[in-house]
Amino acid sequence: LPASMYTEIQRERPDGGNILTHPDYIDGNPDLIKPKKLLNPVKASKSHQELHRELLMNHKRGLGVDSKPELQRVLEHRRRDLLIKQKKEEEEAKKLQSPFEKELLKRHQRLDQLEKQQEKQEDHAPEFIKVKENLRRTSTVTGDEKAA
């Protein structure tokens, strides 16, 4: 009996029990515009196609995905060599400073040492001397401002 009910339902539905509707363009109506499949912009791009082609070639050769193409390896090698040359040139430039630059550097170092020594001496001086120096500075500044 359940099998007979199924056959009755099949007779009631002319489309064979399919719930999905059929598209209208199958009828062959010439007034309707037939839809076209949309292109995937990623797959349509040249860079994607070239990358895909390169991956297929590497797969056929038996190369792994991790290996880089020859052009990229050469460019990275050149970049690395260029950086090494620049570092060597900078080091040579530092070594081959003119005598004038060397003398300036020595004087600058001496001045830095003198300033450090003065700061150390000021730190060891009694506090009343520090306060007295600050008072002298403020009194000269205020006197200069009054004159101006």
Automatic annotation (TrEMBL):
The keyword Cell cycle applies. InterPro entries: FAM107. Keywords: Actin-binding, Cell cycle, Cell junction, Cell membrane, Cell projection, Coiled coil, Cytoplasm, Cytoskeleton, Growth regulation, Membrane, Nucleus, Stress response, Synapse. One of its GO terms (molecular function) is actin binding. GO terms for biological process: actin filament bundle assembly; actin filament polymerization; regulation of actin cytoskeleton organization. It is found in: Cell junction, Focal adhesion; Cell membrane; Cell projection; Cytoplasm, Cytoskeleton, Stress fiber. Residues 109-148 are annotated as: Disordered. GO terms for cellular component: focal adhesion; neuron projection; nucleus; plasma membrane; stress fiber; synapse. The keyword Nucleus applies. It comes from the Eukaryota. Residues 109-136 have a biased composition (Basic and acidic residues). PANTHER family: ACTIN-ASSOCIATED PROTEIN FAM107A, DOWN REGULATED IN RENAL CARCINOMA 1/TU3A. Stress-inducible actin-binding protein that plays a role in synaptic and cognitive functions by modulating actin filamentous (F-actin) dynamics. Mediates polymerization of globular actin to F-actin. Also binds to, stabilizes and bundles F-actin. Involved in synaptic function by regulating neurite outgrowth in an actin-dependent manner and for the acquisition of hippocampus-dependent cognitive function, such as learning and long-term memory. This is Actin-associated protein FAM107A. It comes from Nesospiza acunhae.
